[in-house]
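Friendly challenge for the regulars: who can give me the structure tokens for this chain first? No prize, just bragging rights.
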Amino acid sequence: MDLNKIIKKHVNNNELKQLFQKLYPICRSISGRGFDDSLKILGKIVKLKIFKFKTGSKVLDWTVPKVWNIKDAYIITPQNKKIAEFKKHNLHLVNYSEPVFKTLPFSKLKKKIFTIPKLPSAIPYVTSYYNRDWGFCMKHNEFKKLKSGNYKAYINSSLKKGYLKYSDVKIKGIKKKEVLISTYLCHPSMANHELSGPIVWSMLYRILKATAPHKYTYRFLICPENIGSAAFLHKNKSTIKKNLVAGFIINCVGYGKEINYKKSRRENTLADKAAINVIKSYQNKSFIHNFAPWGSDERQFCSPGFNLPVGLIMRKMFAGFKEYHNSLDNEKIFSFKTINESIKIYLETIQTIENNFVPLAKIQYGTPQLSKSKIPIYRKNMSWHIKKMEKKTKVMLEILNFADGKLDMIEIANKRKFKLIEHLDVIENLIKAGYLKKIS
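First reply, four minutes later:
Bragging rights claimed.
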């Protein structure tokens, strides 16, 4: 399967840019119109299946909060000037702020204003999902100009009973065993940290749908971060551990040349082995991180009771770039070239998973005389100067030597440091010639 041709056929950069431009201005949160409107836009690409949980519902140890909606918010200075205007940038408002209409002195107001002194031109992203509170966010440079006096705080928001929502849809495969492809959709106007995940996620859905059926069933989850994955796990806790063989959370995939992989809690799952096999083949700098119970939805998926085989392939890792969680994470740092490359990395990882099996070599005592095979799988002369031919020969001999029925193909590839999907022809020829068989 030529992934470059498939990506070119199904991924259009102009479409990606239009999708980004539609989604970026929306003030998303873990519930409300912003989340719903964003789902509708993505629903034109992915056939969504919506699940709902009422306000007050228990999902694992979490409680679904009220639904938040926002119309407008700003501060009026003693000089009657509007500042921290929500309509100019939705990060100006602390997400999930309760309604406020009050006059207060600057000495009290400044306790409700958040800035980043180290990044004086950035508006921070701050939330208060589960505690009734309110606040504003500003550039530190602008905050420093404020004088004493009475200010008016205006927040036209609502917190009402409603529903937490997420979408969970499957592309059925030959097997019932599943690979989870998950992303979140709950942050306001941030590019890499918020929108790169859903954009890559939607393109993967389109491609896997168009190229189905696959060996595995692919489950596409999009939800508000943390509480959304908790709700999904709550609903599927009786089956998810039984069926899931691998999974990935897609975020932070639109910025940065490097490739970061955060392992699952088990740290040697099918997802971990496949991702590492792929990213180690790239010329980009790559970094492998052990699991830690913070970051994104991995803390839910990899909690001790579930301990699911879920990892994250990223570019610049969350909290690893200065634009993280502030207004500098915008279209200026967002790269559609990086988005396309991230799509390919994920597709290569999926292709690696699809082609994995435990092999057993026919000849376990000594080495086989491959030159007598009727299928041309071995070199006809002993020249070591034809590099491409000799690389294939080397990989062939390595596969046969390590195919003892104990290691799977990805483990062999990682042990011998070759990219599995670059040598599928070698494996196929060995199987056809009868020197290799799949035992699981």
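The mean pLDDT is 95. The two ends are 23 Å apart (CA to CA). Your move, everyone else.
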